[in-house]
Amino acid sequence: MKNEFQVIADLIEKDRKVLDVGCADGTLMKFLKDNKNINIRGLEISKEKVQECIAKGLTVIEGNAEKDLKQFPDKSFDYVVLSQTLQAFLNPELVLDELLRVGKKAIVTIPNFGYWKVRFHLLFKGTMPITKTLPDEWYNTPNLHMCTIKDFFHFVKSKDIKIFKSLALNNLNSSIINESNLGVKNLFADLGIFLIEK
Amino acid sequence: MNTEKNIKTLIVKKPLKLDCGKTIKDFPIAYETYGSLNSKKDNAILVFHALTGDQFVTGINPVTNKEGWWSYAVGPDKAIDTNKYFVICSNVIGGCMGSYGPSHKDPDQKIFGTNFPVITINDMVNAQYNLLDHFGIDKLFSITGGSMGGMQVLQFISNFPDKSKTVIPIATTSSHSAQNIAFNELGRQAITADSNWKEGNYTSNDTNPGKGLAVARMAAHITYLSKKGLQEKFGRKLQEREDLKFGFDADFQIESYLRYQGSVFVDRFDANSYLYITRAMDYFDLAKQFEGNLSEAFINTKAKFFIISFTSDWLYPTQENKDIVIALNSIGADVGFVEIESDKGHDSFLLDVPDFLSALKNFLDKSYEEN
Lengths: 198, 371
Prior knowledge:
The structure holds 2 protein chains of 2 kinds.
Chain A: H1 3-11, E1 17-21, H2 27-36, E2 39-44, H3 47-55, E3 59-62, H4 65-68, E4 77-83, H5 92-102, E5 103-111, H6 116-125, H7 149-158, E6 162-170, E7 173-176, H8 182-188, E8 191-197
Chain B: E1 8-12, E2 16-17, E3 23-24, E4 27-34, E5 44-47, E6 74-75, E7 80-81, E8 86-90, H1 121-128, H2 130-135, E9 140-146, H3 148-159, E10 164-170, H4 178-192, H5 210-224, H6 227-233, H7 253-268, H8 271-283, E11 304-310, H9 318-329, E12 334-340, H10 354-369
Parallel strand pairs in B: 5-8, 5-9, 6-7, 9-10, 10-11, 11-12
Antiparallel strand pairs in B: 1-4, 2-3, 4-8
Protein backbone atom coordinates (compact mmCIF):
# COMPACT_ATOMS: atom_id res chain seq x y z
CA MET A 1 0.00 0.00 0.00
CA LYS A 2 1.31 3.43 -0.84
CA ASN A 3 2.59 5.69 1.89
CA GLU A 4 -0.16 8.23 1.26
CA PHE A 5 -2.76 5.67 2.35
CA GLN A 6 -0.78 4.85 5.49
CA VAL A 7 -0.74 8.55 6.40
CA ILE A 8 -4.50 8.83 5.72
CA ALA A 9 -5.21 5.71 7.78
CA ASP A 10 -3.21 7.15 10.69
CA LEU A 11 -5.53 10.17 10.72
CA ILE A 12 -8.62 8.01 11.27
CA GLU A 13 -9.50 6.50 14.65
CA LYS A 14 -10.83 2.94 14.97
CA ASP A 15 -14.53 1.99 14.57
CA ARG A 16 -15.50 5.07 12.56
CA LYS A 17 -17.80 5.41 9.55
CA VAL A 18 -15.90 6.50 6.46
CA LEU A 19 -16.75 7.28 2.83
CA ASP A 20 -13.94 6.95 0.30
CA VAL A 21 -14.81 9.14 -2.68
CA GLY A 22 -13.12 7.87 -5.83
CA CYS A 23 -12.10 4.72 -4.00
CA ALA A 24 -10.57 3.10 -7.12
CA ASP A 25 -9.79 -0.61 -6.53
CA GLY A 26 -10.58 -0.29 -2.81
CA THR A 27 -7.02 -0.71 -1.47
CA LEU A 28 -7.44 1.97 1.19
CA MET A 29 -10.96 0.80 2.02
CA LYS A 30 -9.81 -2.76 2.54
CA PHE A 31 -6.96 -1.61 4.78
CA LEU A 32 -9.27 0.54 6.89
CA LYS A 33 -11.85 -2.22 7.15
CA ASP A 34 -9.36 -4.94 8.09
CA ASN A 35 -7.07 -2.95 10.37
CA LYS A 36 -9.23 -0.31 11.97
CA ASN A 37 -12.67 -1.91 11.96
CA ILE A 38 -13.95 0.96 9.88
CA ASN A 39 -17.52 0.90 8.55
CA ILE A 40 -16.40 1.82 5.07
CA ARG A 41 -18.25 2.81 1.89
CA GLY A 42 -16.84 3.74 -1.49
CA LEU A 43 -18.01 5.84 -4.41
CA GLU A 44 -16.32 5.07 -7.71
CA ILE A 45 -17.01 6.09 -11.31
CA SER A 46 -15.20 3.27 -13.12
CA LYS A 47 -17.16 0.06 -13.67
CA GLU A 48 -13.97 -2.02 -13.68
CA LYS A 49 -12.82 -0.58 -10.35
CA VAL A 50 -16.27 -1.11 -8.86
CA GLN A 51 -16.02 -4.79 -9.81
CA GLU A 52 -12.60 -4.99 -8.13
CA CYS A 53 -14.08 -3.54 -4.95
CA ILE A 54 -16.96 -6.03 -4.99
CA ALA A 55 -14.44 -8.84 -5.41
CA LYS A 56 -12.77 -7.61 -2.23
CA GLY A 57 -16.09 -7.72 -0.39
CA LEU A 58 -16.35 -3.93 -0.12
CA THR A 59 -19.53 -1.87 -0.21
CA VAL A 60 -19.18 0.42 -3.18
CA ILE A 61 -21.59 2.56 -5.15
CA GLU A 62 -20.94 3.20 -8.82
CA GLY A 63 -21.37 6.90 -9.28
CA ASN A 64 -19.98 10.33 -9.96
CA ALA A 65 -18.91 12.45 -6.99
CA GLU A 66 -20.03 15.63 -8.74
CA LYS A 67 -23.62 14.35 -8.93
CA ASP A 68 -24.01 11.54 -6.45
CA LEU A 69 -22.72 12.95 -3.17
CA LYS A 70 -25.94 14.86 -2.72
CA GLN A 71 -27.85 11.68 -1.80
CA PHE A 72 -25.91 11.35 1.45
CA PRO A 73 -27.36 13.17 4.46
CA ASP A 74 -25.47 15.91 6.31
CA LYS A 75 -22.63 14.69 8.51
CA SER A 76 -23.53 11.05 7.85
CA PHE A 77 -19.87 9.97 7.89
CA ASP A 78 -17.16 10.60 10.47
CA TYR A 79 -14.64 11.05 7.66
CA VAL A 80 -14.89 11.49 3.93
CA VAL A 81 -11.68 10.74 2.05
CA LEU A 82 -10.78 12.18 -1.35
CA SER A 83 -7.40 11.01 -2.58
CA GLN A 84 -5.75 12.90 -5.46
CA THR A 85 -9.01 13.48 -7.28
CA LEU A 86 -10.08 17.03 -6.43
CA GLN A 87 -8.17 18.45 -9.37
CA ALA A 88 -10.02 16.17 -11.80
CA PHE A 89 -13.51 17.56 -11.12
CA LEU A 90 -15.24 20.13 -13.30
CA ASN A 91 -16.11 22.06 -10.16
CA PRO A 92 -13.70 21.23 -7.31
CA GLU A 93 -15.13 23.92 -5.05
CA LEU A 94 -18.59 22.34 -5.19
CA VAL A 95 -17.19 18.89 -4.49
CA LEU A 96 -15.20 20.21 -1.55
CA ASP A 97 -18.36 21.80 -0.12
CA GLU A 98 -20.18 18.49 -0.53
CA LEU A 99 -17.39 16.52 1.17
CA LEU A 100 -17.61 18.83 4.16
CA ARG A 101 -21.39 18.62 4.24
CA VAL A 102 -21.49 14.80 4.13
CA GLY A 103 -18.52 14.23 6.43
CA LYS A 104 -17.94 15.52 9.92
CA LYS A 105 -14.36 15.81 8.72
CA ALA A 106 -12.76 15.41 5.31
CA ILE A 107 -9.32 14.17 4.33
CA VAL A 108 -8.25 15.61 1.00
CA THR A 109 -4.97 14.89 -0.71
CA ILE A 110 -3.63 16.85 -3.67
CA PRO A 111 -0.73 16.29 -6.02
CA ASN A 112 1.41 19.41 -5.49
CA PHE A 113 2.02 21.45 -8.65
CA GLY A 114 4.48 23.54 -6.63
CA TYR A 115 6.84 20.59 -6.13
CA TRP A 116 10.34 21.51 -7.29
CA LYS A 117 10.52 18.74 -9.86
CA VAL A 118 7.34 20.06 -11.45
CA ARG A 119 8.70 23.59 -11.49
CA PHE A 120 12.04 22.43 -12.90
CA HIS A 121 10.36 20.38 -15.58
CA LEU A 122 8.38 23.36 -16.83
CA LEU A 123 11.23 25.82 -16.37
CA PHE A 124 13.99 23.85 -18.09
CA LYS A 125 12.19 21.51 -20.45
CA GLY A 126 9.42 23.96 -21.28
CA THR A 127 6.88 21.14 -21.51
CA MET A 128 4.04 20.15 -19.20
CA PRO A 129 5.50 18.42 -16.13
CA ILE A 130 5.37 14.65 -15.80
CA THR A 131 6.22 13.21 -12.39
CA LYS A 132 5.35 10.19 -10.29
CA THR A 133 2.15 11.82 -9.00
CA LEU A 134 1.41 13.51 -12.36
CA PRO A 135 2.12 10.68 -14.78
CA ASP A 136 -0.07 11.71 -17.73
CA GLU A 137 0.56 13.81 -20.81
CA TRP A 138 -1.23 17.15 -21.14
CA TYR A 139 -3.58 15.73 -23.76
CA ASN A 140 -4.75 12.71 -21.79
CA THR A 141 -4.55 13.80 -18.17
CA PRO A 142 -7.79 13.65 -16.18
CA ASN A 143 -6.56 16.66 -14.23
CA LEU A 144 -8.41 19.89 -14.99
CA HIS A 145 -7.61 22.11 -12.02
CA MET A 146 -4.04 21.62 -10.84
CA CYS A 147 -3.05 23.52 -7.72
CA THR A 148 -0.15 23.81 -5.33
CA ILE A 149 -0.10 23.08 -1.61
CA LYS A 150 0.03 26.83 -1.09
CA ASP A 151 -3.00 27.40 -3.34
CA PHE A 152 -5.05 24.82 -1.50
CA PHE A 153 -3.94 26.09 1.90
CA HIS A 154 -5.02 29.63 1.04
CA PHE A 155 -8.22 28.46 -0.65
CA VAL A 156 -9.34 26.47 2.38
CA LYS A 157 -8.57 29.39 4.71
CA SER A 158 -10.53 31.79 2.51
CA LYS A 159 -13.59 29.51 2.78
CA ASP A 160 -13.42 29.49 6.59
CA ILE A 161 -12.67 25.80 6.55
CA LYS A 162 -10.80 24.62 9.64
CA ILE A 163 -7.52 22.82 9.01
CA PHE A 164 -6.90 20.26 11.75
CA LYS A 165 -3.77 18.88 10.24
CA SER A 166 -1.88 19.46 7.04
CA LEU A 167 0.93 17.18 6.03
CA ALA A 168 3.54 17.34 3.32
CA LEU A 169 4.51 14.03 1.82
CA ASN A 170 7.74 13.40 -0.02
CA ASN A 171 8.35 9.76 -0.80
CA LEU A 172 8.31 8.11 2.60
CA ASN A 173 8.59 11.23 4.72
CA SER A 174 5.64 13.15 6.01
CA SER A 175 5.93 16.42 7.89
CA ILE A 176 3.59 19.04 9.31
CA ILE A 177 2.74 22.09 7.18
CA ASN A 178 2.11 25.41 8.94
CA GLU A 179 1.95 29.09 8.00
CA SER A 180 5.65 29.60 8.59
CA ASN A 181 7.04 26.67 6.58
CA LEU A 182 4.43 26.78 3.82
CA GLY A 183 6.86 28.09 1.19
CA VAL A 184 9.40 25.37 1.85
CA LYS A 185 6.87 22.52 2.03
CA ASN A 186 5.29 23.79 -1.17
CA LEU A 187 8.66 23.33 -2.85
CA PHE A 188 9.72 19.98 -1.41
CA ALA A 189 6.52 17.91 -1.09
CA ASP A 190 4.97 16.13 -4.04
CA LEU A 191 1.73 15.53 -2.15
CA GLY A 192 -0.32 17.52 0.36
CA ILE A 193 -2.67 15.82 2.84
CA PHE A 194 -5.28 17.95 4.61
CA LEU A 195 -7.62 17.04 7.45
CA ILE A 196 -10.36 19.64 7.37
CA GLU A 197 -13.77 20.46 8.81
CA LYS A 198 -16.51 23.00 8.28
CA MET B 1 -50.83 -26.15 -16.05
CA ASN B 2 -52.40 -29.33 -14.76
CA THR B 3 -49.13 -31.15 -14.38
CA GLU B 4 -49.29 -31.74 -10.68
CA LYS B 5 -46.64 -34.43 -10.58
CA ASN B 6 -43.15 -33.03 -9.94
CA ILE B 7 -44.62 -30.04 -8.15
CA LYS B 8 -43.89 -29.69 -4.44
CA THR B 9 -46.62 -27.88 -2.61
CA LEU B 10 -47.00 -26.28 0.78
CA ILE B 11 -50.59 -25.84 1.92
CA VAL B 12 -50.80 -22.62 3.90
CA LYS B 13 -53.41 -23.15 6.60
CA LYS B 14 -53.08 -19.72 8.17
CA PRO B 15 -55.52 -17.17 6.75
CA LEU B 16 -53.87 -14.45 4.66
CA LYS B 17 -55.62 -11.11 4.40
CA LEU B 18 -55.06 -9.73 0.91
CA ASP B 19 -54.70 -6.04 0.01
CA CYS B 20 -58.00 -6.22 -1.86
CA GLY B 21 -59.74 -6.97 1.45
CA LYS B 22 -60.46 -10.65 0.85
CA THR B 23 -58.94 -13.40 2.98
CA ILE B 24 -57.59 -16.68 1.63
CA LYS B 25 -56.68 -19.80 3.63
CA ASP B 26 -55.72 -23.43 3.04
CA PHE B 27 -54.13 -22.37 -0.22
CA PRO B 28 -51.21 -24.03 -2.02
CA ILE B 29 -47.77 -22.55 -2.65
CA ALA B 30 -45.74 -24.53 -5.14
CA TYR B 31 -42.01 -24.40 -4.55
CA GLU B 32 -38.71 -25.98 -5.48
CA THR B 33 -35.36 -26.09 -3.68
CA TYR B 34 -31.77 -26.57 -4.82
CA GLY B 35 -28.71 -27.44 -2.72
CA SER B 36 -29.07 -28.30 0.94
CA LEU B 37 -29.85 -26.40 4.09
CA ASN B 38 -26.89 -26.57 6.49
CA SER B 39 -27.23 -27.46 10.16
CA LYS B 40 -27.07 -23.80 11.24
CA LYS B 41 -29.75 -22.99 8.68
CA ASP B 42 -27.87 -19.86 7.72
CA ASN B 43 -27.26 -20.57 4.02
CA ALA B 44 -30.75 -20.15 2.57
CA ILE B 45 -31.43 -17.84 -0.37
CA LEU B 46 -34.99 -17.05 -1.34
CA VAL B 47 -35.24 -16.32 -5.06
CA PHE B 48 -38.27 -14.48 -6.40
CA HIS B 49 -39.29 -15.02 -10.00
CA ALA B 50 -40.38 -12.45 -12.58
CA LEU B 51 -43.69 -12.12 -14.47
CA THR B 52 -43.54 -15.35 -16.45
CA GLY B 53 -41.11 -17.32 -14.31
CA ASP B 54 -41.85 -20.13 -11.90
CA GLN B 55 -40.27 -22.10 -9.07
CA PHE B 56 -38.03 -24.10 -11.42
CA VAL B 57 -35.03 -21.81 -11.25
CA THR B 58 -32.35 -24.05 -12.70
CA GLY B 59 -31.77 -27.45 -14.24
CA ILE B 60 -34.49 -28.92 -16.42
CA ASN B 61 -37.97 -27.68 -15.63
CA PRO B 62 -39.92 -30.96 -15.21
CA VAL B 63 -43.12 -29.44 -16.60
CA THR B 64 -41.80 -27.69 -19.70
CA ASN B 65 -38.68 -29.86 -20.15
CA LYS B 66 -36.72 -26.68 -20.82
CA GLU B 67 -33.83 -25.12 -18.88
CA GLY B 68 -34.87 -23.30 -15.72
CA TRP B 69 -35.24 -19.54 -16.14
CA TRP B 70 -32.13 -18.62 -14.13
CA SER B 71 -29.85 -21.48 -15.15
CA TYR B 72 -27.01 -19.08 -15.96
CA ALA B 73 -26.94 -17.74 -12.41
CA VAL B 74 -28.01 -20.63 -10.19
CA GLY B 75 -26.42 -24.07 -9.88
CA PRO B 76 -23.29 -25.86 -8.68
CA ASP B 77 -20.29 -23.46 -8.83
CA LYS B 78 -22.41 -20.77 -10.46
CA ALA B 79 -22.98 -17.23 -9.15
CA ILE B 80 -25.59 -18.52 -6.72
CA ASP B 81 -23.65 -21.66 -5.89
CA THR B 82 -25.94 -24.51 -4.90
CA ASN B 83 -22.94 -26.42 -3.51
CA LYS B 84 -22.84 -23.73 -0.88
CA TYR B 85 -26.32 -22.25 -0.61
CA PHE B 86 -29.82 -23.63 -0.19
CA VAL B 87 -31.96 -21.97 -2.85
CA ILE B 88 -35.71 -21.78 -2.42
CA CYS B 89 -38.08 -20.43 -5.04
CA SER B 90 -41.83 -20.56 -5.16
CA ASN B 91 -44.44 -19.81 -7.75
CA VAL B 92 -46.20 -16.52 -6.92
CA ILE B 93 -49.84 -16.65 -5.92
CA GLY B 94 -51.86 -15.72 -8.98
CA GLY B 95 -49.43 -17.82 -11.02
CA CYS B 96 -49.99 -21.01 -12.97
CA MET B 97 -47.30 -23.46 -11.87
CA GLY B 98 -49.10 -24.91 -8.88
CA SER B 99 -49.56 -21.96 -6.54
CA TYR B 100 -53.02 -20.64 -5.77
CA GLY B 101 -54.24 -18.85 -8.87
CA PRO B 102 -57.12 -18.17 -11.26
CA SER B 103 -56.96 -21.67 -12.77
CA HIS B 104 -57.70 -23.18 -9.34
CA LYS B 105 -61.17 -24.05 -8.12
CA ASP B 106 -63.12 -21.95 -5.67
CA PRO B 107 -64.77 -23.57 -2.58
CA ASP B 108 -67.77 -24.44 -4.79
CA GLN B 109 -65.47 -26.41 -7.10
CA LYS B 110 -65.88 -23.86 -9.89
CA ILE B 111 -62.73 -22.61 -11.63
CA PHE B 112 -62.00 -19.12 -10.37
CA GLY B 113 -61.13 -17.36 -13.62
CA THR B 114 -61.49 -13.65 -13.01
CA ASN B 115 -63.31 -14.34 -9.74
CA PHE B 116 -59.90 -14.99 -8.22
CA PRO B 117 -59.07 -12.06 -5.92
CA VAL B 118 -56.78 -9.39 -7.37
CA ILE B 119 -53.40 -9.89 -5.72
CA THR B 120 -50.48 -7.57 -5.11
CA ILE B 121 -46.72 -7.88 -4.73
CA ASN B 122 -47.33 -7.48 -1.00
CA ASP B 123 -49.72 -10.45 -1.02
CA MET B 124 -47.18 -12.52 -2.96
CA VAL B 125 -44.38 -12.02 -0.42
CA ASN B 126 -46.68 -12.46 2.56
CA ALA B 127 -47.73 -15.81 1.12
CA GLN B 128 -44.13 -16.85 0.44
CA TYR B 129 -43.04 -15.90 3.94
CA ASN B 130 -44.71 -19.13 5.10
CA LEU B 131 -41.84 -21.05 3.48
CA LEU B 132 -39.47 -19.81 6.21
CA ASP B 133 -41.58 -21.46 8.89
CA HIS B 134 -41.91 -24.55 6.73
CA PHE B 135 -38.13 -24.97 6.56
CA GLY B 136 -37.52 -23.74 10.10
CA ILE B 137 -35.38 -20.86 8.85
CA ASP B 138 -35.16 -17.94 11.25
CA LYS B 139 -33.14 -15.70 8.95
CA LEU B 140 -32.34 -16.03 5.28
CA PHE B 141 -28.81 -15.39 4.07
CA SER B 142 -30.13 -13.56 1.03
CA ILE B 143 -33.16 -12.64 -1.02
CA THR B 144 -32.82 -11.87 -4.69
CA GLY B 145 -34.68 -11.58 -7.96
CA GLY B 146 -34.86 -9.50 -11.11
CA SER B 147 -37.69 -7.40 -12.54
CA MET B 148 -40.91 -8.34 -10.69
CA GLY B 149 -38.66 -10.59 -8.59
CA GLY B 150 -36.81 -7.45 -7.52
CA MET B 151 -40.09 -5.80 -6.52
CA GLN B 152 -40.81 -8.79 -4.28
CA VAL B 153 -37.30 -8.50 -2.81
CA LEU B 154 -37.96 -4.86 -1.86
CA GLN B 155 -41.41 -5.62 -0.46
CA PHE B 156 -40.15 -8.64 1.47
CA ILE B 157 -37.39 -6.78 3.31
CA SER B 158 -39.77 -3.93 4.01
CA ASN B 159 -42.34 -6.33 5.51
CA PHE B 160 -39.79 -8.54 7.29
CA PRO B 161 -36.81 -6.27 7.99
CA ASP B 162 -34.78 -8.75 10.06
CA LYS B 163 -35.43 -11.85 7.98
CA SER B 164 -32.54 -11.58 5.53
CA LYS B 165 -28.87 -10.69 5.95
CA THR B 166 -28.41 -9.52 2.40
CA VAL B 167 -30.80 -8.13 -0.20
CA ILE B 168 -30.17 -8.12 -3.95
CA PRO B 169 -32.80 -6.38 -6.10
CA ILE B 170 -31.88 -6.61 -9.79
CA ALA B 171 -33.13 -4.57 -12.78
CA THR B 172 -36.21 -3.42 -10.93
CA THR B 173 -38.14 -0.46 -9.60
CA SER B 174 -39.81 0.66 -6.41
CA SER B 175 -42.78 2.01 -8.32
CA HIS B 176 -44.17 0.80 -11.64
CA SER B 177 -43.87 3.59 -14.20
CA ALA B 178 -46.62 4.84 -16.53
CA GLN B 179 -44.72 3.36 -19.46
CA ASN B 180 -44.62 -0.05 -17.81
CA ILE B 181 -48.30 0.08 -16.86
CA ALA B 182 -48.99 0.99 -20.50
CA PHE B 183 -47.12 -2.04 -21.81
CA ASN B 184 -48.93 -4.31 -19.37
CA GLU B 185 -52.27 -2.86 -20.36
CA LEU B 186 -51.46 -3.59 -24.00
CA GLY B 187 -50.89 -7.22 -23.06
CA ARG B 188 -54.09 -7.46 -21.06
CA GLN B 189 -56.10 -5.89 -23.85
CA ALA B 190 -54.69 -8.41 -26.33
CA ILE B 191 -55.85 -11.26 -24.09
CA THR B 192 -59.30 -9.93 -23.30
CA ALA B 193 -59.90 -9.00 -26.96
CA ASP B 194 -59.46 -12.64 -27.94
CA SER B 195 -62.99 -14.04 -28.39
CA ASN B 196 -61.79 -17.29 -26.83
CA TRP B 197 -61.10 -15.53 -23.54
CA LYS B 198 -64.84 -15.75 -22.68
CA GLU B 199 -64.64 -13.26 -19.80
CA GLY B 200 -61.99 -15.47 -18.25
CA ASN B 201 -64.08 -18.65 -18.35
CA TYR B 202 -62.20 -20.29 -21.21
CA THR B 203 -61.47 -23.52 -19.37
CA SER B 204 -65.12 -24.33 -18.72
CA ASN B 205 -65.92 -23.28 -22.31
CA ASP B 206 -63.12 -25.52 -23.59
CA THR B 207 -61.44 -22.69 -25.47
CA ASN B 208 -58.09 -20.94 -25.03
CA PRO B 209 -57.27 -17.28 -25.76
CA GLY B 210 -53.93 -18.38 -27.18
CA LYS B 211 -53.80 -15.75 -29.89
CA GLY B 212 -54.31 -12.91 -27.45
CA LEU B 213 -51.80 -14.32 -25.00
CA ALA B 214 -49.26 -14.78 -27.80
CA VAL B 215 -49.63 -11.14 -28.88
CA ALA B 216 -49.22 -10.06 -25.25
CA ARG B 217 -46.01 -12.07 -25.04
CA MET B 218 -44.69 -10.73 -28.35
CA ALA B 219 -45.21 -7.12 -27.28
CA ALA B 220 -43.66 -7.75 -23.89
CA HIS B 221 -40.74 -9.62 -25.40
CA ILE B 222 -39.73 -6.54 -27.41
CA THR B 223 -39.52 -4.55 -24.18
CA TYR B 224 -37.10 -7.10 -22.70
CA LEU B 225 -34.54 -6.52 -25.46
CA SER B 226 -32.58 -3.48 -26.59
CA LYS B 227 -32.71 -1.82 -29.98
CA LYS B 228 -29.01 -2.53 -30.47
CA GLY B 229 -29.40 -6.15 -29.42
CA LEU B 230 -32.28 -6.67 -31.84
CA GLN B 231 -30.46 -4.92 -34.67
CA GLU B 232 -27.33 -7.01 -34.16
CA LYS B 233 -29.19 -10.29 -33.90
CA PHE B 234 -31.78 -9.80 -36.66
CA GLY B 235 -31.18 -6.59 -38.55
CA ARG B 236 -33.32 -6.80 -41.69
CA LYS B 237 -32.48 -10.44 -42.32
CA LEU B 238 -35.17 -12.38 -44.16
CA GLN B 239 -36.72 -15.59 -42.93
CA GLU B 240 -35.89 -18.54 -45.22
CA ARG B 241 -36.50 -16.57 -48.37
CA GLU B 242 -34.45 -14.74 -50.98
CA ASP B 243 -36.64 -11.67 -51.26
CA LEU B 244 -39.71 -9.92 -49.90
CA LYS B 245 -42.95 -11.74 -50.68
CA PHE B 246 -45.25 -8.71 -50.82
CA GLY B 247 -47.63 -10.23 -48.27
CA PHE B 248 -48.18 -10.46 -44.56
CA ASP B 249 -46.42 -13.67 -43.85
CA ALA B 250 -43.28 -13.44 -41.70
CA ASP B 251 -40.78 -12.04 -44.21
CA PHE B 252 -38.31 -10.90 -41.59
CA GLN B 253 -36.48 -13.05 -39.10
CA ILE B 254 -37.55 -10.81 -36.25
CA GLU B 255 -41.20 -11.45 -37.13
CA SER B 256 -40.69 -15.17 -37.20
CA TYR B 257 -38.77 -15.01 -33.92
CA LEU B 258 -41.55 -13.08 -32.17
CA ARG B 259 -44.22 -15.42 -33.51
CA TYR B 260 -42.25 -18.35 -32.19
CA GLN B 261 -41.83 -16.69 -28.78
CA GLY B 262 -45.57 -16.08 -28.66
CA SER B 263 -46.49 -19.64 -29.62
CA VAL B 264 -44.21 -21.40 -27.14
CA PHE B 265 -45.37 -19.10 -24.35
CA VAL B 266 -48.99 -20.08 -24.87
CA ASP B 267 -48.07 -23.71 -24.20
CA ARG B 268 -46.71 -22.95 -20.75
CA PHE B 269 -48.66 -19.99 -19.43
CA ASP B 270 -52.20 -19.26 -18.37
CA ALA B 271 -53.89 -16.19 -19.83
CA ASN B 272 -55.72 -15.24 -16.63
CA SER B 273 -52.50 -15.56 -14.62
CA TYR B 274 -50.96 -13.09 -17.06
CA LEU B 275 -53.75 -10.63 -16.27
CA TYR B 276 -53.37 -11.09 -12.52
CA ILE B 277 -49.61 -10.89 -12.33
CA THR B 278 -49.28 -7.85 -14.61
CA ARG B 279 -51.93 -6.15 -12.45
CA ALA B 280 -49.88 -6.88 -9.33
CA MET B 281 -46.85 -5.24 -10.97
CA ASP B 282 -48.87 -2.18 -11.97
CA TYR B 283 -50.19 -1.76 -8.44
CA PHE B 284 -46.66 -1.87 -7.02
CA ASP B 285 -45.65 1.45 -5.49
CA LEU B 286 -43.55 0.89 -2.39
CA ALA B 287 -43.09 4.59 -1.62
CA LYS B 288 -46.85 5.09 -1.63
CA GLN B 289 -47.14 2.54 1.17
CA PHE B 290 -45.02 4.94 3.24
CA GLU B 291 -46.67 8.22 2.38
CA GLY B 292 -44.33 8.86 -0.51
CA ASN B 293 -41.10 8.37 1.42
CA LEU B 294 -39.34 5.30 0.03
CA SER B 295 -36.62 5.44 2.71
CA GLU B 296 -39.25 4.68 5.33
CA ALA B 297 -39.77 1.28 3.71
CA PHE B 298 -36.27 0.30 4.78
CA ILE B 299 -35.88 2.20 8.02
CA ASN B 300 -36.07 -0.90 10.22
CA THR B 301 -33.67 -3.15 8.39
CA LYS B 302 -29.95 -3.65 9.00
CA ALA B 303 -29.60 -5.83 5.92
CA LYS B 304 -26.81 -5.29 3.43
CA PHE B 305 -28.18 -4.25 0.02
CA PHE B 306 -26.60 -4.73 -3.37
CA ILE B 307 -28.47 -3.25 -6.30
CA ILE B 308 -27.71 -4.09 -9.92
CA SER B 309 -28.93 -2.45 -13.13
CA PHE B 310 -28.01 -2.80 -16.81
CA THR B 311 -27.01 -0.07 -19.27
CA SER B 312 -29.38 -1.14 -22.05
CA ASP B 313 -32.41 -1.90 -19.84
CA TRP B 314 -35.02 0.68 -20.82
CA LEU B 315 -37.90 -1.12 -19.08
CA TYR B 316 -36.40 -0.78 -15.59
CA PRO B 317 -33.68 1.76 -16.35
CA THR B 318 -30.67 2.50 -14.17
CA GLN B 319 -32.25 5.66 -12.78
CA GLU B 320 -35.16 3.73 -11.28
CA ASN B 321 -32.70 1.35 -9.62
CA LYS B 322 -30.61 4.29 -8.46
CA ASP B 323 -33.67 5.83 -6.83
CA ILE B 324 -33.67 2.84 -4.49
CA VAL B 325 -29.96 3.37 -3.79
CA ILE B 326 -30.64 7.03 -3.02
CA ALA B 327 -33.49 6.16 -0.63
CA LEU B 328 -31.19 3.74 1.18
CA ASN B 329 -28.25 6.12 1.36
CA SER B 330 -30.43 8.84 2.79
CA ILE B 331 -30.99 6.67 5.87
CA GLY B 332 -27.38 5.49 6.07
CA ALA B 333 -28.19 1.91 5.03
CA ASP B 334 -25.45 -0.44 3.87
CA VAL B 335 -25.91 -0.33 0.10
CA GLY B 336 -23.72 -1.11 -2.88
CA PHE B 337 -24.68 -0.44 -6.48
CA VAL B 338 -23.33 -1.34 -9.89
CA GLU B 339 -24.60 -0.73 -13.40
CA ILE B 340 -23.52 -3.57 -15.68
CA GLU B 341 -22.55 -2.82 -19.28
CA SER B 342 -24.68 -5.00 -21.55
CA ASP B 343 -26.57 -4.59 -24.82
CA LYS B 344 -28.99 -7.42 -23.98
CA GLY B 345 -31.64 -5.10 -22.51
CA HIS B 346 -33.82 -5.95 -19.52
CA ASP B 347 -33.27 -9.66 -20.18
CA SER B 348 -29.59 -9.21 -19.26
CA PHE B 349 -30.18 -10.58 -15.79
CA LEU B 350 -31.38 -13.88 -17.25
CA LEU B 351 -28.55 -14.25 -19.73
CA ASP B 352 -24.85 -15.03 -19.80
CA VAL B 353 -23.51 -11.60 -18.85
CA PRO B 354 -20.15 -12.36 -17.19
CA ASP B 355 -19.71 -9.01 -15.37
CA PHE B 356 -23.15 -9.41 -13.83
CA LEU B 357 -22.64 -13.01 -12.81
CA SER B 358 -19.22 -12.32 -11.27
CA ALA B 359 -20.51 -9.30 -9.34
CA LEU B 360 -23.40 -11.38 -8.00
CA LYS B 361 -21.09 -14.25 -7.05
CA ASN B 362 -18.49 -12.01 -5.42
CA PHE B 363 -21.07 -10.13 -3.40
CA LEU B 364 -22.71 -13.31 -2.13
CA ASP B 365 -19.54 -15.26 -1.40
CA LYS B 366 -17.74 -12.36 0.32
CA SER B 367 -20.83 -11.54 2.38
CA TYR B 368 -21.18 -15.19 3.37
CA GLU B 369 -17.51 -15.33 4.46
CA GLU B 370 -18.20 -12.42 6.79
CA ASN B 371 -21.06 -14.29 8.40
